[in-house]
Amino acid sequence: MKVIILAGGFGTRLSEYTKLIPKPMVEIGGKPILWHIMNHYAKYGYKEFVVALGYKGEVIKNYFLQYYTLNHNFTIDLSNGHVDYLNEHSTDWKVSLVDTGAASMTGGRILRLKEVIGDEDFMVTYGDAVSDVNIGELVKRYQESGKLAMVTAVHPTARFGEIQIDEEDYVRSFKEKPQLNQGWINGGFFVLSPKVFDYIENDLTTFEREPLERLAAEGQLKTYRHDGFWQCMDTVRDRDLLNQMWNEGNAPWK
Fold it and tell me: How far is 125 from 212, CA to CA, in rounded Å?
């Protein structure tokens, strides 16, 4: 089953970094968040990726063109350009890098990959969030559902600390930025039937609007509820938090 990663947005809320590189290339622990997402899927045996490129897609293309060299030590003979790799080890991923348009919306990017995906079920996720969602269980639930689509629902992390106060103004509970127990949001990590392509009209279609709304209305969209870790990287604060977790050895997605 192929995994589409949407990596074409402008990342305006991370403009400190995305003026030069696309958002999926912003690093956590010295590796692009895109690599972390792919590594997560690979852990469950899903190693065939289709990266939907847009804004500064050439940066992502260059990263993968140089991936082998960047991730190995080597000796180069400058007289003839011959390279010998030291302690060589391979990453058995297959990565397709496809330009899906500079201004395409999420649905349009998915639709442009129809021929690459073919007639098989496939997965879709965003290029800016990490999680410890169990991909194997997600796929199993999708297959058991018999429906055309499944979306992973997550609890967002509160932006501010939560205080529970009793009738006499005593603080009975204090939690700094807890994960909210009420309410679910779209966490990405979709599993989809190829029939979902028929729900997408063109480049201007936002996948999270008409297609998912129609699938839900027709009873063809089910949810996989994930109560574990999930964190998007929308802002510099998010990026710093994820790096702190990684550097402290407390990265649940690792």
Answer: 14
